[in-house]
Design a protein that fits this description.
By secondary structure, this protein is α+β, with helices and mostly antiparallel strands. It is built from 23 helices and 88 strands. Strand 57 and strand 58 form a beta hairpin. The termini are far apart.
Length: 1529
């Protein structure tokens, strides 16, 4: 007998009750269900059938039950003579972790606030007493904070992260994890920014009248199409903004696509997709195609009409409509955007298809239910008139096993009446197979027999939507316009399918190709939620039912779903045929999240004045503890804060849920284990175990189990029918990706009007006539908690902040039963009818003249025009240069008036000043703001690294950071000292950011792959490859590996740009072979052996008769060849490189060894033994390659390598290095090879000296200066660290001049944490005292400003600024570099340079102009950084004259007396070859001509197409050719 079908969880948490589903328990005579230790008869728990369902057996695990492997044993039959078993893991109870922050963006010096909430996943009840670890990482990957806290009785743990005054700016990551005793961790990550910004005071909204534009046909691309819409702008306190508007229509220059490049060849997981990088900032770039500039807001709104050239409209290339509003009251500028799809003619409808059961299979003879969503581009549901405008059908195409059998297509109509809000559910008939030519149960030994027996069996079904015969394509992110369904596996030839329940009905439908009368009397179902079986019961099949019209049998049944189940669930139905074979079907469905209690949060008043008292009112229908937060609307405009809400809970639940498989499950692979129950395997995810007869799991599967022909897989187990889809869902291999619609809006928030620093003091203080001074301007106002009783809630008294704005209120609460969340329906408006505002930059430079804008707002009803008396109180550190400290300003009712004055900061630091305004009628307001003043000059950083080596004795060492005694700008010197217990810590933390370089070619991409390999091997060797690091490193390797495959040639070689290059590159192919083999050896990512074999075969084919390897292919970045690039005779170096790569590959993956490879390596070895390179690089690489090929010869080679090195420093602190004459980057690479050789040869002492030198050269992000030196150096450091690895348990004391005494502990719990303290006197002596054991890295840094860069220049740099005569707010900037005679020659035929152009205070670069020049080929890439623009150039810099870049800027606010700005140029792969200039602000004035008549436009257009002009000329061309008037240009 087949026995019962038993499904249990694969993992069971101790301290909880779990259920197993036992189908047919009564009929099979189940005697017992128990849990016992594997290999023991000890019974841990005896399962009991649930009262509500005899098929559900529950067993309880005590909290103190030991974790480990156990076995579920089900005994059945006469006297329990038969049994089924499965192994499951007992694990600690898991926690679901949620993490929220008080806001999304922070300034330097602020404190980020966190709340982590731990919930029990099964009930969503708070998890008290759970240890939570919070880590914070900087943008370059440094661990800045690692701390732990225990959740309170409400499940919450609170954390704070004080942000340094001079932090690394950019996106930070916070991770909250609840690590169990088994090492598993529930992790929640959120991102937040640290930037120098000021808050936006208003928001801009763009509303378009058109949902989309239609791309014209090829013969109708002349003329324009009108785009219309509305612009609105409102202050965060609700009043309308008045001012000028510029509307710009931007076109995506290159839409990113998803590439399923790896799925086709099976090299990596099919879901490892990449996003094509356009090379522009943010990976998505736009070009201006039309503008409207003469617009004014009236009462905060304006209509616009823009003529968009038809020639610029391309289907699929989404437009972005951007409105830039300049507030007439303050001069502040803010942007708003709206996307606008461009579609094919006739494609005003978009289709999105999904199967109702969430799967990707069809079942012959049963209908497949498809949910069709029809909508307009932009997302609005399709209107009925559009749905009824023609014949709307689903086109279904059947493909067959025999390709000679033509595919069959048919249409299934979809009447408009069947759609509700654009959604319809359609049953697609799937005909039965023709038994005359399709016998899916036949046993076939050969392909010929297979095709003969199953030639007309349907292998896959393709579905898409057509309107009037034309296919509709996906033009929206996330939509799938087509489906590809694979054939489901059936061991019996029969199928059942399930139509799942919905939120509106808790009933499901089961359909069967087998007559219900031929099945055993009852079917059963169970529901899977959160990895566990949560409910189940029987399904009565009406045996007398007649076959449906479609030729199948159907029955409906009620489904019981636990009330706490939310998010994704799975319904599984099982039945047995009369002879005992199982049939099974499943469907994924979603349940809405319902809170176990109600919660509300609100303010007692809708509007208050600054500093007034009010109440926060919290209410719940249960005794709960409430945590709430209130955020300024201005801060919300910078980004939504990570909050604990219903969406966050659902997201966490869905992360733990298992979706239907994307491709057909290979159930037949377990036929030898599960026999007649194998059909159930296909419906279970990895979280569930199907019990098998005792002893079955020890049997082995037959060979070629996945083949469609061959020996039988076992009784009742036919071989599969293939020819299905490579992946489920959409058949299209290219889909639109979501658009990062940032443009300049988000960036410009950083130059809006606000004070430089927040003041945490409470409002108050008398001034003038007893009026409170407004100086409490928090971004997060409330961040606290309160207890609420079910009797009537609670009211908490609070004082309103001084900011004129609106405030949100969000809350979540917990009870022992669960969680609830709420947001106040109405925000709080803090407002007064008469007030003054200041517009300030984040900071100013000492000595610059800063223009300060002051605005007085008058909303006093009936006041008419008021004469406001202004008074300004400046501190001594700010000198008044222009304007008056007392003046009068006329302000009309319902508007604002502006005044300006100029100040000159004369002292560094944060300075306060007050502005007051008063008018008749008792109207008075006083505001106090702060201004941060920073030092002038060029910033210089000096770093000193020290390795503390402890072996039981105490350590003491004094040193100083090298700081010049002269030339330092007064007050600019600051410094810090840090320690970290892991010598590789910075590199491990910064794996994704080791080098800030593009990854747009096959060479650069290797920086995303190789270092991860070395770090993975190191962490695995020392036992510190934690689950989170494992996932992160694996993800990095999959991305780097998959991307590198796109640069592969058909002959197996690799090159910088793949098949667009004429041939593969010997250098790059060798590098890839070595790295791919090391990837395979980690066991984290599987590398296709055929890829390695083909690359090795190609390399062998490049070997000459004398054993040397011939260089083929061009290497764009010659540093990939290291020091070899400048050698006139490179055969020896190239052969060394290739031999070392092949030797490393075969040592990592012995299966690669072959007779041909051994011969090639032997010939290469003989060649190198006979060669005698003259240069240090060639010599060292030669002996390194010979050593790797034969490590037994290590002693002699180590001595030879040491003879080429040099040491500096005294006894005990020696630094060893290998130097080349070319560049510092090559020195790093050479020393890396030396440390590698010495470490592998066991010469640890000398290797330590080289490791010290490398660590001293390592950059702040953990990398070095280029790709190749970083790869080699990190390999060396990882190898050395592995060789000398041991535990660290040290106490380190830092004593520094100025009175600093700090003691830190370093042990295994905080090895990777960067512990930092400020140095009171950075130029003074620092003493390190340490005791304990292990190695600790100490890093001291001094930062200061100088008037000019003292280094000897390699390039002459010149930067010119131009300002339009008609618009002083905009103009072009041109940066040029010329190589000086003393500069060494660049490696021939390659290289990359960075030109970094500094921006003056108040100016910002225009991205659209940058894009125009990038597409014109002026540079390969650009990046916008803090106060500069970085350009990547890959042509010889200044080789035959000046090399120039141009772009446009706009002036966001006025600063006079601007200090000089630094611009620099350096060679990327040799950064010591550089040049720098300090430029004063002396712009030239130019006058762009007005657009001429049409003929002049045509002539100008032709001239622009023919001639290459500098940027001003190109702007004039744009004006003349397109008639576009754009103030930015």
């Amino acid at each position: 007998a087949a026995g019962p079908i038993v499904v249990c969880p694969q993992r069971a948490a101790v301290g909880r009750t779990h259920s197993c589903f036992v189908s047919g328990a009564v009929a099979a005579g189940v005697v017992s269900v128990d849990l016992r230790r594997t290999g023991s008869t000890q019974v841990l728990s005896v399962a009991q059938p649930a009262a509500s369902s005899p098929d559900l057996y529950s067993f309880a695990l005590a909290p103190d039950t030991a974790i480990g492997e156990c076995t579920v044993v089900v005994k059945y039959g006469s006297g329990g003579a038969e049994s089924k078993t499965a192994s499951i893991q007992l694990v600690p109870e898991a926690a679901m972790v949620l993490l929220e922050m008080d806001k999304a963006l922070y300034k330097p010096g602020q404190t980020a606030l966190f709340r982590a909430l731990a919930l029990r996943p099964s009930t969503l009840a708070p998890y008290a007493g759970r240890a939570i670890e919070l880590t914070v990482q900087s943008p370059d990957g440094f661990t800045l904070l690692k701390t732990a806290n225990t959740t309170d009785s409400h499940g919450v743990a609170a954390f704070e992260f004080p942000i340094a005054a001079e932090p690394l700016l950019g996106e930070h990551t916070a991770r909250a994890s609840a690590v169990s005793a088994s090492g598993d961790a529930a992790v929640r990550s959120v991102s937040f920014g640290v930037e120098v910004y000021v808050l936006p005071r208003y928001e801009v909204n763009v509303s378009l009248d058109q949902a989309h534009l239609v791309a014209p046909s090829m013969d109708n691309r002349e003329g324009t199409v009108d785009l219309t819409g509305q612009i609105s702008a409102a202050y965060t306190f609700g009043e309308a903004v008045n001012g000028g508007v510029l509307v710009t229509v931007l076109q995506s220059s290159a839409a990113p696509v998803r590439r399923i490049g790896m799925a086709a060849v099976g090299f990596a997981p099919a879901d490892a997709v990449t996003s094509a990088d356009t090379g522009g900032a943010g990976g998505r770039s736009f070009l201006t195609i039309a503008t409207a500039s003469d617009l004014r807001l009236a009462a905060g709104a304006a209509q616009f009409r823009i003529a968009v050239p038809k020639a610029k409209l391309s289907a699929g290339a989404e437009l972005l409509v951007e409105a830039s509003v300049i507030d007439s009251a303050t001069g502040e500028r803010q942007n708003g955007t709206a996307p606008l799809p461009v579609v094919y003619a006739g494609s005003g409808l978009v289709a999105d298809l999904a199967t109702a059961d969430g799967g990707a299979e069809f079942r012959p003879g049963l209908p497949t239910t498809v949910r069709v969503r029809m909508f307009q581009p932009g997302g609005a549901p399709a209107p009925e008139e559009a749905l009824s405008s023609g014949a709307l059908v689903l086109r279904v195409t059947q493909n067959f096993v025999d390709y000679n059998v033509l595919a069959v297509s048919r249409d299934v109509s979809m009447p408009a009446s069947g759609f509700v809000a654009g959604v319809a559910t359609v049953d697609l008939p799937m005909p039965q197979d023709d038994s005359a030519c399709c016998d899916p149960l036949a046993v076939v030994a050969t392909e010929t027999e297979y095709v003969k027996a199953m030639g007309c069996c349907t292998s896959r079904v393709e579905v898409f939507v057509a309107l009037n015969g034309d296919r509709l394509w996906a033009t929206e992110a996330g939509s799938a316009s087509s489906l590809c369904l694979s054939r489901a596996y059936s061991p019996t030839g029969h199928y059942i399918a399930v139509d799942p329940p919905t939120d509106s009905r808790l009933s499901a439908v089961v359909r069967s190709t087998a007559d219900f009368a031929t099945l055993q009397t009852e079917a059963t179902y169970f529901v899977v939620y959160g990895g566990s079986v949560t409910s189940g019961s029987s399904v009565n099949l009406p045996t007398g039912a007649a076959r449906s019209v479609g030729g199948y049998w159907e029955a409906s049944f009620s489904v019981s779903v636990p009330p706490q189940a939310a998010g994704k669930c799975r319904l599984v139905v099982v039945a047995r045929t009369a002879d005992g074979a199982a049939l099974s079907g499943s469907a994924v469905f979603s349940r809405k999240l319902t809170w176990p209690f109600s919660l509300s949060a609100s303010f007692s008043r809708s509007e208050v004045r600054p500093g007034e008292q009010l109440e926060v009112e919290l209410a719940a229908n249960a005794s709960a503890h409430v945590f709430f937060a209130s955020l300024d609307r201005s801060a919300e405009l910078l980004g939504p804060r990570p909050a604990i809400s219903s969406s966050a809970v659902l997201e966490a639940l869905d992360r733990g849920a298992v979706d239907a498989p994307a491709v057909a499950p290979r159930a037949w692979q377990s036929c030898h284990i599960h026999g007649p129950d194998v059909a159930v395997v296909a419906e279970l995810g990895p979280e569930l175990a199907l019990l098998a007869k005792a002893g079955a799991s020890s049997q082995t599967a037959p060979e070629d189990v996945d083949s469609s022909w061959g020996p039988s897989l076992g009784k009742g187990c036919p071989r599969p029918i293939h020819g299905g889809c490579s992946r489920g869902g959409d058949m299209e291999l290219m889909e639109m990706m979501p658009v990062a619609l940032s443009a300049e809006g988000a960036a410009r928030a950083g130059v809006a009007a606000d004070g430089a620093m927040d003041d945490s003091e409470a409002s108050g203080g008398a001034a003038g006539r007893g009026v409170a001074v407004r100086k409490f301007f928090p971004e997060t106002w409330l961040w606290t908690e309160a207890a609420v009783s079910a009797a009537g809630g609670v009211s908490l008294g609070v004082q309103a902040p001084d900011t004129i704005t609106t405030w949100s209120l969000e809350a979540f609460a917990t009870t022992p039963q669960g969680i609830a969340a709420a947001r106040a329906e109405a925000p709080l408006r803090v407002f007064k009818p008469f007030f003054v505002e200041l517009r300030l930059p984040y900071s100013a430079i000492r000595g610059e003249l800063l223009e300060v804008t002051l605005a007085v707002f008058n909303y006093a009803t009936g006041s008419g025009s008021l004469n406001a008396s202004l008074s300004i109180a400046l501190p001594a550190e700010l000198e008044l240069v222009e304007g008056q400290l007392a003046s009068t300003l006329a302000v009309s009712e319902g508007s604002a008036s502006m005044a300006k004055f100029s100040v000159k900061p004369v002292s560094l630091g944060t300075h306060r000043f007050q502005v007051s305004a008063s008018a008749a009628g008792g109207h008075t307001d006083i505001m106090e703001r702060t201004l941060l003043v920073q030092a002038e000059g060029v910033e210089i950083r000096e770093t000193k690294n020290l390795i503390v080596e402890l072996s039981g004795s105490e350590f003491e060492k004094a040193f100083q950071v090298p700081v010049p005694s002269a030339d330092i700008i007064n007050g600019s010197l600051r410094g810090s000292v840090s320690i970290v217990g892991d010598l590789l810590g910075p590199s491990i933390s910064g794996l994704e950011h080791l080098l800030q370089i593009p990854t747009g070619c096959g060479e650069q991409n290797m920086i995303t792959l190789a270092p991860n390999v070395y770090v993975a091997k190191y962490l695995a060797a020392v036992g510190r490859l934690r689950p989170d690091l494992r996932r992160r490193i694996t993800s990095n390797m999959i991305v780097g590996y998959g991307r590198e495959l796109t640069y592969r040639h058909k002959d197996g070689s690799f090159s910088a740009f793949g098949q667009t290059d004429p041939s593969g590159s010997t250098w790059l192919t060798a590098f890839v072979v070595k790295t791919f083999a090391e990837v395979q050896a980690t066991g984290l990512v599987s590398v296709d052996s055929s890829v390695l074999q083909a690359a090795i075969s190609w390399l062998i084919a490049q070997q000459a008769a004398d054993g040397s390897f011939t260089a083929r292919g061009k290497v764009i970045h010659k540093e990939m060849m290291g020091g070899m690039g400048g050698s006139s005779v490179a055969e020896s170096a190239l052969t060394s490189y290739v031999l070392a790569a092949l030797a490393k590959a075969t040592s990592e993956v012995p299966a690669l060894q072959s007779a041909g490879l051994s011969i090639a390596m032997s010939r290469a070895t003989s060649f190198l033994q006979a060669s005698a390179p003259s240069r240090v690089y060639g010599k060292l690489l030669r002996i390194f390659a010979l050593f790797i090929a034969d490590p037994a010869t290590g002693a002699g080679f180590a001595d030879e390598a040491l003879a080429m090195s040099t040491t500096t420093g005294g006894s005990g602190v020696a630094l060893r290095s290998w130097a080349a004459a070319d560049s510092a980057a090559q020195d790093v690479e050479l020393t890396g090879y030396g440390v590698l050789l010495l470490s592998l040869a066991g010469r640890v002492g000398e290797a330590f000296e080289g490791a010290r030198w490398l660590l001293d050269k390592r950059g702040a992000s953990g990398g070095f200066s280029s790709t190749q030196d970083t790869v080699v150096a990190l390999s060396a450091l990882a190898t050395y660290a592995t060789v000398v690895s041991g535990t660290v348990n040290a106490e380190v004391t830092v004593l520094a001049a100025g009175g600093l005494t700090t003691t830190w502990s370093v042990d295994e719990s905080n090895l990777e944490v960067l512990q930092t303290a400020a140095l009171p006197q950075p130029a003074g002596p620092v003493t390190i005292r340490a005791s304990g054991s292990g190695n600790v890295l100490v890093v001291a840094e001094a930062v200061y400003n100088v008037a000019a860069q003292p280094a000897r220049p390699c390039f002459e740099v010149d930067v010119k600024w131009m300002i339009a005569a008609s618009d002083a707010r905009s103009g072009p900037v041109r940066g040029c570099a010329t190589r000086l005679p003393n500069c060494p020659e660049t490696i021939a035929d390659g290289g990359m340079w960075i030109m970094s152009v500094g921006l003056f205070t108040g100016f910002g670069a225009v991205r659209s102009s940058l894009e125009q020049r990038r597409l014109a080929g002026d540079f390969r890439r650009y990046e916008l950084a803090d106060g500069r623009v970085d350009f990547y150039l890959d042509t010889e810099l200044g080789a035959t004259g000046a090399t120039c870049v141009e772009f446009n800027v706009t002036r966001d606010y006025v600063v006079t007396g601007l200090q000089a700005r630094s611009s620099k140029v350096f060679e990327y792969y040799a950064p010591d070859r550089a040049g720098r200039v300090l430029s004063d602000f002396k712009p030239e004035v130019y006058t762009p001509p007005a657009p001429g008549p049409e003929q002049q436009r045509t002539d100008a257009s032709r001239a622009c197409a023919i001639h290459s002009m500098w940027f001003v000329a190109s702007l004039l061309c744009a004006h003349a050719a397109g008639g576009v008037s754009h103030p930015r240009y």
